[in-house]
Design brief:
alpha+beta, about 425 residues, globular, binds adenosine-5'-diphosphate, binds magnesium ion, 19 strands, Rossmann fold, Aldehyde Oxidoreductase, domain 3
Length: about 425
């Protein structure tokens, strides 16, 4: 769908970090829509000018970033300021508030970013959540291990992609999980409060939900099933398949619960990515973030003819009407290829064979050969992505598994190289 005719194209500031998986898709969608894109990258000035990018920002110094963006806005106003992923959602809200652009309430944006704030808001609104408790990072885990109900899950407040999320089944495992998660949080430097969250472990199957909020109303865009069991101790994201194979009634419950969670958190505008667990006791939000799905996963979503998720998000951001969002294909899936063990990636084989599997539409290896790879819970990346489009969700899942079985990753142990202090 082409952009509505405008005298001048709306100007959009995209905020992203150099390692973002999401930037390319947003930039491509903005170009397709004919938007005037300004790149706001979290990077030192010399690097940004080397890449020919106009705006180098330090996301860790929001006041300076806001002042810089404000000066640009005064010269040539932005229609929207958009964070492409987690790293800048709070900054985007603060900037939008400063520039007088539509935005989410900053406290709600924080609650969609910080798991402790989120849990409190969900619980206050009577949305079912696991039992949860926050502890300061310097607490002694051995002294509180007996207070926990097992199994439980230890997690950081503000990381993503399951980093530092560890299940513990007993006191010894709790102490080990705590120490490990604490080290991961410390290796990230100060990002919010030095604390971690302990939650009761919820059994069940898990789904991910993509949605878009307009004036507080949620438009459900997709429900992804996660067919691999996610039982811990670490929670690797692997296969996502849509449309969901859960019964329609349950999907309706998932949609309703996601809308309820978004309202409880207080988000009203823009993308929502939620994860929920379903068991005999009901539908439980694990997480609700004010962003779209991570990695390269969004590329399997197509709304109408060739309209991608980023296009919908950008249209919403600049206030353009949204097209119908019915999806026509019958099965689509993506596999985030997990890193099986740490070391130096020396080679990748079988990509052509994986691509040749029926239903597979692409294989993208994003890890770089001769660079170290780090698995969960410390790691924050994948080896790559496999994409499938088929006539059913079951066929999409089968295609992803068949393609993955074709891939061989040569990872050499790195002796004496410690990546995490
Ligand atoms: N209380 C819980 N019970 C069961 N599984 C959980 C719980 N909390 C997290 N998980 C698992 O860990 C994954 C990552 O946790 P989440 O809170 O979403 O952190 P992140 O922001 O890193 O994605 C979830 O998708 C889920 O599979
Ligand atoms: Mg999550």
């Amino acid at each position: 769908m082409s952009a509505p005719p405008e005298a001048t194209a709306p100007r959009v500031l995209l905020l992203y970090t150099p390692t973002s998986y999401r930037a390319t898709a947003f930039i491509a969608a903005a170009e397709r829509l004919g938007l005037d894109v300004v790149h706001g990258m979290d990077t030192p000035e010399p690097l940004a000018s080397h890449w020919g990018l106009p705006v180098a920002l330090d996301f860790a110094r929001p006041e300076e970033a806001i002042a810089r963006i404000g000066a640009l806005h005064a010269e040539h106003p932005f229609a929207a300021v958009l964070a492409v992923d987690d790293g800048a959602t709070l900054l985007a809200v603060e900037v939008s508030a400063a520039l007088g652009l539509p935005h989410n309430d900053p406290a709600s944006a924080l609650a969609a970013r910080d798991k402790w704030e989120m849990r409190q808001r969900l619980a206050a609104a009577k949305v079912p959540v696991p039992a949860f408790r926050r502890y300061p990072l310097d607490a002694d885990p051995a002294a509180i291990a007996d207070d926990q109900h097992y199994p439980c899950v230890v997690k950081p407040l503000r990381l993503s992609g399951s980093r530092g999320v560890i299940r513990a089944d007993d006191a010894d495992a709790f102490v080990a999980a705590w120490e490990r998660t604490r080290r991961i949080i410390e290796s990230e430097g100060a990002n919010g409060e030095p604390a971690l969250l302990v939650e009761s472990y919820l059994p069940g199957v898990e789904v991910a939900v993509e949605g878009l909020l307009t004036g507080g109303k949620l438009r459900l865009l997709a429900i992804f099933d996660k067919p691999d069991p996610l039982e811990g101790p670490f929670f690797e994201e692997t296969i996502y398949v849509t449309p969901s194979r859960l019964p329609p009634g349950m999907q309706a419950e998932i949609a309703a619960r996601t809308a309820q969670a978004a309202a409880a958190v207080g988000l009203r505008e823009g993308p929502v990515h939620a994860e929920l667990r379903i068991n005999a006791a009901g539908v439980w939000p694990i997480e609700l973030a004010g962003r779209s799905i991570g990695g390269l996963c969004s590329s399997v979503l197509e709304f109408g003819v060739g309209i991608g998720l980023e296009e919908l998000i950008l249209r919403h951001a600049v206030g353009w009407p949204l097209p119908a969002t019915a999806r026509e294909h019958h099965g689509a899936g993506v596999m985030m290829i997990p890193i099986p063990r740490g070391g130096m990636l020396r080679g990748v084989e079988g990509v052509a064979e994986a691509c040749a599997e029926p239903g597979v539409t692409g294989v993208e290896i994003t890890a770089r050969v001769n660079h170290p790879v780090t698995p969960l819970p410390e790691g924050s990346s994948y080896l790559g992505f496999i994409f499938a489009r088929t006539d059913s969700p079951a066929a999409a899942e089968a295609a992803l598994r068949a393609a993955h079985a074709r891939l061989r990753f040569r990872i050499e142990p790195t002796i004496g190289l410690t990546l995490i202090p």
